[in-house]
Design a protein that fits this description.
The structure holds two protein chains of two kinds.
Chain A (H helix, E strand, L loop, with lengths): L2 H30 L10 H6 L2 H34 L3 H9 L6 H12 L4 H9 L10 H26 L2 H9 L4 H12 L1 H16 L3 H5 L8 H12 L2 H22 L13
Helix pairs in contact in A: 1-13, 3-7, 3-10, 7-10, 8-9, 10-13, 12-13
Chain B lengths: L1 H27 L7 E7 L5 H11 L2 E7 L2 H10 L6 E2 L3 H9 L33 E14 L23 E4 L2 H11 L9 H14 L3 E5 L3 H6 L5 E5 H10 L3 E4 L7 E7 L7 H12 L1 H11 L6 H6 L2 H4 L8 H6 L7 H17 L3
Parallel strand pairs in B: 1-2, 1-3, 5-6, 5-7
Antiparallel strand pairs in B: 4-7, 4-8, 4-9
Helix pairs in contact in B: 5-6, 5-14, 6-14
Classes of the chains: A mainly alpha, B alpha/beta.
């Protein structure tokens, strides 16, 4: 292929990036310096460092952490199990298919399941625990979020586990390592990149969840995403909304940086 | 590449042919700007029989489209595209549309039936002199409660919500004006206050309500109250009417301290092709018999005095939806507080939500 046509094919990509990635980012930054009167101001940033928004940031991070942790605890063993089953692709498909359903629909289903007269409470009643307040608690918020994000955690972990050469595990066992030691010193370190990718895919969107906070948590849990939505749609205080978004973007970049894979060689264990 | 270009040309050509065809079809059926009227209204918010009657009476064909939020409607009208002739936004949206010059001023000469409207509902702050809008339905914000679940307790005042008996029992709508207004009203202040100390006091009082609040939700509140998920809710009267229709145990009350008075008004957007027909339609809906028929069907409160008098006793005598004058006097329309004040309300409401747990 000639250089010229290569450049030609690059045009859509450059346009896309410029229009839908760079321009919005610049706009967000621009709006974050605008007050309600439309003049340049730093007051939005001063406002962000008031107790309200700092508290909001801390609680957002805490919930995002919890969601990521539980998603990881469930996903890693599941992915490990998946690589051991005979019909891997079928099982994987069964896990991915629910993620094709619109999130809103899934969340509405949980309204019914967790409700006072829902399935979950009927079950608790039968077991003898008695009905509990499930909907509109932080438990239900974390539960539903974990449910929604699990496929995003399983896929990268599954991929890195699947790529892991079984000979390495065999070698470890041959040399006398217990299965726990093999897992700790061979399997897990070699799949850490998958784990990191999964954590990125779960943690970052968790920070900005807003629909679930209202529907499932009844605003008992508020995240940065909720505040941004409020400022853009209700208050029309785009400046403040953009300022929160700027901090969200900074947080995302930090997380990407922290979980980025700098040691690339490890993935290709076979060649090493 | 060549194939792509050919494909593109074929698509363009097909689109052109379709456009011509649609145009032909429309003219052959006599559908042009003057003969049709596009009405943009909330879902299930009109007795469709009235549309048929209007078509027969005037020979104008009505295209009826619906929206489910003021914001969605506003976006569609801002974009143009469809030539909506009549729309029915809520009062705060009307103020915004007037500001953005999206509305055509009404010609009151063409609306003789305006005389039937209740004078108290005219000339309000969101549209002084009714230059742009005519009331369609009105309502209040109040408390809906399940008589069975609250054990025979009746509500008369906003303060009843603060009763320790109702731990974790209350659902609120997720609206800063509504909830801050509720707290302000319960303290005897105006829900349009600009006084910082009054606002702080209201926010403080809301924080005390926190243990009683089960959740703050959006439109789902109808479903949640309707299915007995919680016994008490703070809602708009229209939503209350809808769920009470389905669940007999529910009752609605407008608290004695006063509350919000809201309106959905008919307007003619800038997109209108048939302003004359739009005036005819608005005038038709203001005809007392039609207003009464519509109010009976939709279940909301009509602002049409003569129409109200035509309603059957069990509707017109229902003081939950047509409150006594003592209460009506205390109802307030939301003033356009301006961006900065509105931001203050929202900030306090957000703080209240953050401290909810």
């Amino acid at each position: 292929m000639s250089n010229k046509s290569k450049n030609l094919f690059l045009i859509p990509y450059v346009f896309w990036i410029a229009l839908f990635v760079i321009a919005p980012l610049v706009l967000v930054l621009f709006y974050s310096f605008r007050g309600l009167d439309g003049n340049f101001t730093l007051s939005n940033y001063a406002n962000f460092f008031s107790s309200t928004y700092l508290q909001l940031t801390v609680s957002s991070f805490w919930y995002a952490f919890l969601i990521t942790l539980f998603a990881f605890l469930i996903s890693y063993p599941t992915a490990l199990l998946l690589t051991k089953t005979r019909h891997k692709q079928l099982w994987l498909l069964l896990i991915i298919v629910p993620s094709w359903i619109n999130i809103l629909l899934k969340v509405y289903a949980f309204l019914g399941i967790f409700g006072t007269y829902g399935l979950a409470n009927a079950l608790l009643e039968v077991v003898g625990i008695g009905s509990k307040q499930i909907l509109f608690t932080d438990f239900s918020f974390v539960f539903v979020s974990v449910y929604i994000f699990i496929p995003f955690m399983i896929l990268p972990i599954y991929n890195s586990l699947d790529k892991l050469s079984p000979t390495l595990v065999d070698a470890s066992r041959d040399l006398g390592a217990s299965s726990w030691k093999t897992f700790r010193h061979v399997i897990f370190p070699l799949t850490i990149d998958g784990v990191k990718a999964g954590c990125q895919l779960v943690f970052i969107p968790s920070l900005s969840l807003f629909m679930i906070t209202r529907l499932i948590a009844g605003n008992q849990v508020i995240t940065l995403g909720t505040a941004i939505e409020q400022h853009f749609l209700v208050t029309q205080d785009w400046g403040m909304g953009a300022t929160i978004a700027v901090f969200l973007i900074i947080a995302m970049i930090l997380i990407m940086f922290l979980t980025g894979n700098r040691k690339r060689g490890l993935m290709n264990g076979k060649k090493a | 590449m060549k194939q792509l270009v050919r494909m593109f040309i074929i698509i363009l050509f097909a689109a052109g042919v379709l456009l011509v065809l649609v145009n032909r079809l429309n003219t052959s059926q006599g559908l042009s700007g003057k003969n049709t009227l596009t009405v943009f209204n909330w879902g299930d918010y009109i007795d469709e029989e009235l549309i048929r009657e209007f078509e027969e009476e005037t020979g104008i064909r009505v295209i009826y489209e619906t929206f489910d939020s003021n914001e969605a409607m506003l976006t569609k009208i801002e974009q143009g595209g469809t030539s909506y002739d009549v729309a029915v936004p809520s009062e705060y949206t009307i103020a915004k549309m007037v500001e953005e010059e999206l509305l055509i001023p009404l010609d009151h000469q063409q609306l003789p039936n305006m005389k039937h409207l209740i004078p108290d509902f005219m000339d309000l702050s969101f549209d002084p002199g009714n230059h742009y809008s005519i009331p369609y339905f009105w309502g209040t914000v109040g408390i809906v409660y399940n008589k069975e679940m609250v054990g025979g307790k009746t509500f008369t005042s906003w303060d009843d919500l603060w009763d320790k008996e109702f731990r974790n029992d209350i659902l609120l709508v997720d609206g800063a004006r509504e909830i801050m207004g509720m707290s302000l009203n319960s303290l005897g202040y105006s829900l349009n206050t600009r006084d910082e100390t009054e606002l702080q006091e209201a926010k403080h009082k809301l924080n005390e309500l926190s243990p009683n609040i089960k959740a703050i939700v959006g439109d789902e509140i109808k479903m949640l109250i309707g299915t007995n998920e919680a016994p008490i809710g703070v809602v708009w009267s229209g939503e209350a009417a809808e769920i009470m229709y389905e669940n007999d145990d529910l009752d609605y009350v407008v608290p004695e301290e006063g509350s919000n008075l809201w309106f959905d008004n008919m307007v003619i957007p800038k997109t209108a092709d048939n302003a004359e027909g739009a005036h005819q339609f608005i005038n038709f809906m203001l005809e007392p018999e039609h207003a009464a028929q519509n109010a009976e069907y939709v279940g909301y409160s009509t602002p049409n005095k003569s129409g109200y008098e035509l309603l059957p006793e069990d509707i017109s005598g229902d003081d939950r939806f047509y409150p006594d004058p003592e209460i009506t006097e205390k109802l307030e329309v939301y003033d356009n507080l301006g961006k900065e004040m509105l931001a203050r309300y929202n900030e306090l409401f957000l703080e209240f939500k953050i401290d909810l747990r």
